[in-house]
Amino acid sequence: MNTSGAQGSRRAGLRLLAATLLAGAGLLVSGAATAAAAPDCPGGQIHPVTLANTGDVLEYGLLASSGRFFYSDQSKGALMEMDGFGSPPRQLAAINGPGGIVAEPDGSLIVGSGDGITNGVLGDQFPMSSLVRVDPATGATSTFASGLGMANGIAQAADGTLYATNDFGFDIDRVDTNGHVDHGWAKVFSTNGVVVSRDQHYLYVSQTFQPAAVQRITIADPSQVSTFAAAQGADIAAGPDDMTRDAKGNLYLAANGAGQVWRIAADGSICVLASGLQNPSAVVLGPGSLASNLYAVGFGGEIVELPGAAAVPAA
Questions:
Q1: In whole angstroms, how far apart are CA 298 and each of 93, 103, 280?
Q2: Cα atoms in the Cβ-side hemisphere of radius 13 Å centred on 251
């Protein structure tokens, strides 16, 4: 499902569902005067700096230490790259329904394939998505794992284990270093962004098509699920998408429907770091000396930088 029309439908579907949730949010707020949207982060919001605008539906992005920027382009059905911001984009590899991207220690990239409505809706019962390994030097591809529900968001633990989500189903998949898939390893409805905790004990997953929240899964016992952060007021319709984590454990979440980036602290409190983005779908940290910057992509085709947005450990 990699045509621009299909992905346009996906974007329209996201907005429609977000609008439906927003209507429900209004009802909740009217009955609970104390419910309020998240405040701005301390120090105020950060102004997004637009680095590029592709005009396509973008699902995920990754900035390498070399300065190359890789991104999942749903409109083109491809993993795309830029040598640097301002350089013309080019196709690195054709990927059907490209989703999350993970950089492996050997320099290769693992990219989700099958991030589309059909795969998601049917994925719990009929897993048909996969993880594709891409050589960034040549664009050569090979299937690393198959039989996943959707491969929307992807996260990698320190031991190399991968976790993949499905925002149209319940199943979260676990993939070992040999590519073996434990389909339905954990069950949480409509998961999208996924992050492994600093201590490797927990998996955090954001939820899109239900009141906005981040759930915490105990990796040693995935039946143990608890709410880590929950939005209030109109924010329950924000449509959480992908997220990342900094070295201090703060989560950074692309709130797709709200057009915002949120920071979620270790106590689960939410604040708004940036607003005015075009349906942001993913936010990632920069590498090396750029580790205090966040980079976001979205359904509007924009690639933006949030300079100095992330906490970094003291030297």
A1: 20, 20, 4
A2: 30
> What are the CA-CA distances from residue 275 to residues 160, 171, 213, 262, 312 (Å)?
34, 31, 18, 9, 22
Closest CA relative to residue 118, chosen from 1, 242, 281? 1
CA distances from 108 to 136, 166, 259, 285 (A): 6, 23, 31, 18
Closest CA to 120 of 151, 147, 99: 151
C-alpha to C-alpha distance for 242 and 60, rounded to whole angstroms: 8
Quick check: 284 and 244 in contact, CB under 8 A? Answer: yes
283-301 pLDDT, tens digit each = 999 999 999 999 999 999 9
Q: What DSSP letter does each residue of 166-197 carry, written as one string?
A: -TTSSEEEEE-TT--EEEEEEE-TTEEEEEE-
CB 81 within 8 A of CB 90: yes
Instruction: Note the pLDDT tens digit of each residue in 242-263.
Output: 999 998 999 999 999 999 999 9
pLDDT range class, residue 36, cuts 50, 70, 90: confident
Structure tokens at 296: 């976001």
DSSP 237: G
37 within 8 A of 235, measured Cβ to Cβ: yes
Helix, coil or strand: residue 17: helix
Q: Which amino acid is at 226?
A: S
| Sequential DSSP letters for 18-69 | HHHHHHHHHHHHHH-TT--PPPBPTT-PPPPEEEEE-SS-EEEEEE-TTS-E
Q: Which of 195, 196, 202 is nearest to 225 (CA)?
A: 202
DSSP string, 266-305: TT--EEEEE---SSEEEEEEPPGGGTT-EEEEETTSEEEE
CA distance 184 to 174: 8
Are the C-beta atoms of residues 163 and 176 closer than 8 Å to each other? Answer: no
CA distance linking residue 23 with residue 44, whole number of Å? 28
State the Cα angle at 252 between 249 and 254, rounded to 5°: 160
